[in-house]
Amino acid sequence: MAYSAQDFKKGQPRWCPGCGDHFFLANLHKAMAEIGVAPHDIAVISGIGCSSRLPHYMATYGMNTIHGRAAAIATGCKVANPRLSVWQISGDGDGLAIGGNHFIHANRRNIDLNMILLNNRIYGLTKGQYSPTSPRGFVSKSSPYGTVEDPFRPAELCFGARGHFFARAVATDAPGTVDILKAAYNHKGSSVCEILQNCVIFNDGCHASVYDKKERAKNAIYVKHGQPLVFGENNEYGIVQEGFGLKIVEIGKDGITMDDILVHDAHCKDNTLQLKLAMMGDGDGFPVALGVIRDVEAPTYNDAVEAQIEEVKAQKKYHSFAELLETNDIWEVHN
Amino acid sequence: MNIEELSEVVVRFSGDSGDGMQLAGNIFSTISATVGNSISTFPDYPADIRAPQGSLTGVSGFQVHIGADKVYTPGDLCDVLVAMNAAALKTQLKYAKSNATIIIDTDSFGPKDLEKAQFQSEDYLGEMGIDHDRVISCPLTTMVKECLADTGMDNKAVMKCRNMFALGLVCWLFDRDLNIAFNFLRGKFAKKPNIAEANIRVIQAGYDYGHNTHSSAHNVYRIETKDKVAGRYMDITGNKATAYGFIAAAEKAGLKLYLGSYPITPATDVLHELSKHKSLGVITVQCEDEIAGCASSLGASFAGALAVTSTSGPGICLKSEAMNLAVIMELPLVVLDVQRGGPATGLPTKSEQTDLLQVLFGRNGDSPMPVMAAFSPTDCFDAAYEASKIALEHMTPVVLLTDAYIANGSGAFRLPDLCEYPDINPPYVPEEMKGTWTPYMRKENGTRYWAVAGREGFEHILGGLEKDDKTGAISTNPENHDLMTRKRQAKIDAIPVPDIVVEGDKDDAELLIVGFGGTYGHLRAAMDQMRAEGKKVALAQFRYINPLPANAAEVLTRYPNVVVAEQNMGQLAGWLRMKVDGFCPAQYNEVKGQPFKVADLVKAFYAIIKK
Predict the structure, then answer these.
(1) B307/A80 Cβ within 8 A
(2) d(C-alpha A93, C-alpha A104), whole Å
(3) Alpha carbon distance B138, B147 (integer Å)
(4) Mean pLDDT, residues B299-320
(5) What pLDDT score was predicted for residue B46?
(6) What does each C-alpha distance from B193 to A67, B167, B441 come to in angstroms?
(7) H or E element: which one contains B286?
């Protein structure tokens, strides 16, 4: 059955006008229509925060739960009914601060969740405190003199937790976002999609270098598996490996040709270069990598749970409670 | 040799925590139960993983009470104490009656052993004031070594069999059939037949030692069972019975069983037990923390499983936010709290009833939650079944309280027939409500319908924010919040629970003893003793604590004297005072981490009557 974005829409979003969450929501509706899973076979599970309101605007099953626990709740939901397509929605505070433990363990287990991290580098719902992704020195209501701590970078955390899928998109970039959401759905196992999203009220311009199309053309690189890593308004720049690091080169200059450019390999098990790509653009002169950065197949937790149950069912002779009782040392008492 | 008929006997095995006392005690109780004796056991082990060998803190004990009639407790003091080393004698003598028979391994009472156990001289019996006549002094280690000399086993493996010699000796003392022990060991060591045979040889040697020397004890004892209830039985611990109750409930309800858990003493055995039974489709997820244990279970509940999370007191602290989410989302969830000594890490391996007020009230908002408590190791089965039934049929989280004492203790469990258990019928939303249904529509009893994720036409959002009664949308309307709060409360209040049964002299008792959960055995034994002594005494043991049975107020105000006896500083008493106007009971409170002693209870209860 074919679905349209309309089939996944519900209610009237209450986010601030211009909030990146509006763009993302529309892109999610669109992606779900293209994916084609029926609304009743989808569960969208969020924690607490502005972005965690999202399930209320989905015509699917959903839960808007408690702060930080979305990944844990989604885990139980997926394991209990693997037929459901489970989407976990969290912001940077929900997912990486209070929910950091569940985030890393969901990745480690490789449970088949589509984990969306809406990163605006601020606490919005509580009105403007720095978050675990705010840069060092960030001034906010809770850090009037600037923060004195380093942020998490979501990709680094995901990779450190042995994540097998990491992709990034800008909320306002419809095709880019729909692409990674579909890739996340198709990836079996935990998949982290970092959505760069602007908070118009408390952290406006936090992703300015890539937020609109024009800036993106200059400051971002779309990575695609099997394609050379080129960027620039006319794809005039490329990325090459140099020593232990990456380097930007200009194609056609100093004898550099397309053959010299690094070809993206999202399926490479060794995440070294993928991590380098994911970490680019933090004021280092490199472009911000968008698209599917890592996408490696691995056994999923939920499949393994099911497989083990089937295996043990075949091995063991007891399959009901009455039969279980008989496996014990039993004695009989006669009158 | 004098053979004496006994109606009951208490045996305590004690030794270093590496000496295998739990296994020896377990086998002895199984043998006794197999011949039809009533049994009640209590393992008492140290919190340390392995304290220094021979030290006072490293002593592990296992007490078993066997009786011709029903026994309700592991017994206050033992009739036979096995002390495998000097430290065991030093620390465990306080659990022995003054005329108890004491079995010691003289090989473990050397100068170093005595020093570690802080004896002042070599006359350890004299120091402890023990009459030599009641001691079976036996060079146990030497004999075990001789017995296994030709097996080629190394010293470490040989030393592990010492417990079996003690077991053999105790089996001789109580005229037990060794074949039952042999079968048990052959089953336990099925993959290591030489270990099984070595253990069997040592048991036999211990038995023969007793028989050949007639030992230095005066008597051999027999305990013949009276009033047997015919049937098929197994030995079961409370934790295992709890796990079985969940399995049975899931099967009856036709649902998958999901356990989200995190290791914590003394609840972990429930996780262990359920993890074994994948052939029954049981899903166990060992989570990253207590919070995820509860949260993932709630996710599983949303997806249509019988969801359970198991823990102890400190784990409840961490789970409380997710438990509260289950309250407002009105999803079924069973929270098992195997209580231990608190606060904080407290006494991890010891028993208390100090979580009652935490589970009743330890959440933000008005957050009513059914709470029930199991009475005994075997009763954990029925309690887990009932908790599951309430959760599933009333769409609510339910707390089931057990405690370290009944969780680790065991009893003879008559194999249940599931056909005799009531059906479990969750309120699934009827198909004809498609199109008109909203998430907080309720049945007549106030329970909302369950639309399991994946059902076409019933897509909906639940969550931690207050919802509109009619539409299910987020609502901050003051009238609606007031209404929803009342509806959540009314739903719990309307859960039908059986009337409390008053045992003993229910018509004319001069004293009503009141307790809850795992103290049943001790309170019952105290009541029995006082009645045997001619007093009019009754017992009301609460199984359902929220909601209270409908007759609770009437029962509690019927008698001239009431004492609420509990292993905390008065939590049940406080709850009952809140619920029953004018209720002002006497209290008996004890928080020693150990089960009550019947003798202490009786003494305290007499004092109340005499006042």
Answers:
(1) yes
(2) 14
(3) 14
(4) 98
(5) 74
(6) 54, 19, 62
(7) strand B283-286
Residue A131 pLDDT class (50, 70, 90 cuts): very high
**What is the residue whose two structure tokens read 């009158």?**
A335
Concatenated DSSP letters of A107-167 = HHHT-SEEEEEEE-SEETTTTSEE-TTSPTT--BTTBTT---SPPP-HHHHHHHTT-SEEE
pLDDT value for B50: 67
Bridge pairing between strands B586-589 and B537-542: unpaired
What mean pLDDT is reported for chain A? 97
Per-residue confidence (pLDDT) for residue B44, from 0 to 100:
84
B568-597 mean pLDDT: 96
Report the distance separating Cα A102 and Cα A74, nearest Å: 10
What's the pLDDT tens digit per position in B249-271?
A: 999 999 999 999 999 999 999 99
Question: Which among A5, A86, A77 has a CA at the least distance from the CA of A41?
Answer: A86
- Provide the domain limits for residue A111: 5-228+264-299
Going from N- to C-terminal start, the domains of chain B cover 2-222, 235-420, 427-496, 502-610
pLDDT at A249: 97
Best residue in B279, B324, B335, B367 to probe A by mutation, most A CBs within 10 Å? B279
Distance CA A107, CA B185 (A): 43
CB contact under 8 A, B300 and A77: yes
Residues in chain B with CB shorter than 8 Å from the CB of A322 are: 417-418
Residues of A in contact with B231 (CB under 8 A): 332-333
Contact A331 B278 (CB under 8 A): no
* CATH number 3.30.310.50 is the correct assignment for the domain at B502-610: no
- The stretches of B160-289 forming alpha helices (DSSP H) are 162-173, 178-188, 193-213, 238-253, 268-276
- CB atoms B460 and A62 under 8 Å: yes
By CA distance, what is A80's nearest residue in B? B300
Running DSSP on this structure, what letter comes out for residue B97?
A: E
Distance separating alpha carbons of residues A237 and A239, to the nearest angstrom: 7
CA distance B205 to chain A (A): 25
The model carries a pTM of 0.92
pLDDT band at B215, cuts 50/70/90? Answer: low
CA distance A175 to chain B (A): 28
Given A66, A104, A321, which is nearest B418 (Cβ)? A321
CATH code assigned at A78: 3.40.50.970
* Best residue of A51, A69, A90, A103 to probe chain B, by most B CBs closer than 10 Å: A69
Residue A232 has pLDDT above 90, yes or no: yes
Token pair in block for residue A79: 């394991």
**Topology agreement, domain B235-420 and domain B502-610:** yes
Pick the CATH number of B235-420 from 3.10.310.40, 3.20.20.70, 3.40.50.300, 3.40.50.970: 3.40.50.970
Q: How many helices (H) and strands (E) does chain A have?
A: 11, 14
